[in-house]
Amino acid sequence: MEITERQSEQLPALQALYLASRRAAFPWLDTREYALGDFERDTQGERVLVALEKNRVVGFIGIYEPDQFIHHLYVAPDRLHQGIGRRLLLAARQTYHTMHLKCLTRNQRALLFYRAMGFTCQGRGRGEHGDYYWLQLASHD
């Protein structure tokens, strides 16, 4: 597997992965209005690292750099539990020493993953999609 910076020719694959992954990850939300074009809007201004396997996009992480905030971490639904999310986080960790993210409290699979990666809960909040935890991965220095 290779982790690279986003390339323009990857856009169709990233759009499809983002749409399929969100629909699979949030079954309690009404996802009927999600669309392929959401990817560009939702990652605007972010650094996007892409996981490639045999030239297939299998995951990505979107980071809002000024805050070291992980806004997106998605893996192709047919490739979950194969270390892709872990590899993306480790790649980001090489640049960003303290990272933050919000994770919906109902997203138990993601919460287990982030806790296993060393994130700790720094607080709670409520957003348009429900309650969330504010998680932090502290500096490893």
TrEMBL record:
Residue intervals of the N-acetyltransferase domain: 1-139
What is the top-level taxon of the source organism?
Bacteria
Q: Which InterPro entries match?
A: Acyl_CoA_acyltransferase, GNAT_dom
Q: What is this protein called?
A: GNAT family N-acetyltransferase
